[in-house]
Structures are given as C-alpha cells and as structure tokens.
Amino acid sequence: QTVHSILGTGGYWAYTYIFTPHGPSDVNDYGLEPGNGGFGLTTVQAKLDVPVSDKFSFQGVAAWFQSNEDVAIGADQTSSDIGTEFGVQFTAKVGKNMNFEFGGAIANLGDAGKVVFQGTDDSTVNEIFGRLQLEF
Q1: Residue 104 is assigned to a structural domain of this protein
Q2: Which of left, alpha, beta for 11 (phi over 0: left; psi -120 to 50: alpha)?
Q3: Does residue 33 form part of some domain?
Q4: Which of 34, 89, 111, 129 lies 20 to 30 angstroms, CA to CA, from 57?
C-alpha cells in the first residue's frame, strides 16, 4: 500500500489528464495512484512546455502505464497493459494569479486498463476540458 491509496488520493505525481489528476481542480477520472491498488506500476512519461508569449503557453504530454502484476481479464487470460495517454493544454494568463487552461486528452486503454477502470471493451477515452484557476 502507498500513502496515496491509504488516503484515497491520486496526488499530482503525473503529467496526464485522464489516468491521473492533473491539478487541484481536476476531476481525477481514473485515479491511478503510484501503487496501482497494490499491483505496482511502471510508467514512462514525457512533457513538453512551450512558452508562446508572456501570456500564452502550450503543454504536450505523453505517457505509458504498465501494471507490475498481471490483472485477470478473462477466464484464462491476464494482462499488465494499462494503456497510453496523449494530451495538450493551452494556458492563457488572464490576471496576476489567474489562468484560463483548456485542452484535451485521449487515453488508449490496454486490456488491464479496460478491466480495472471501465469493465467494458471501450478502448479509447477522450476528454476536453477548460478551467479558470486562481493560484497563489
């Protein structure tokens, strides 16, 4: 067990938008935490931040998630493939401590991800988001 799983929080440990919470106002779609519910987790993530101007920036992210232990996906089948995610976010500074963030993400669920997060055969999850955020 990790502190994240004991407290029931995902924390802000990852760059992604769908598998993990991305910030304090995020809805935390799947709530994947570093311990992966006791199964362990291997992940590779990349983030690119591009300042376009003093008031506008762009962020792109990519991530791959793998369970350290196989998850039962059928009668005699197991998988450790949780999935991949790609996302973009645009940030516009609208005040000294206020930002408007908007973007989108797509998660491709692996066999383990389909079972753990949805229980369906849907292999793709899309998200479009926007938020006005006051930060201090």
Answers
A1: yes
A2: left
A3: no
A4: 34
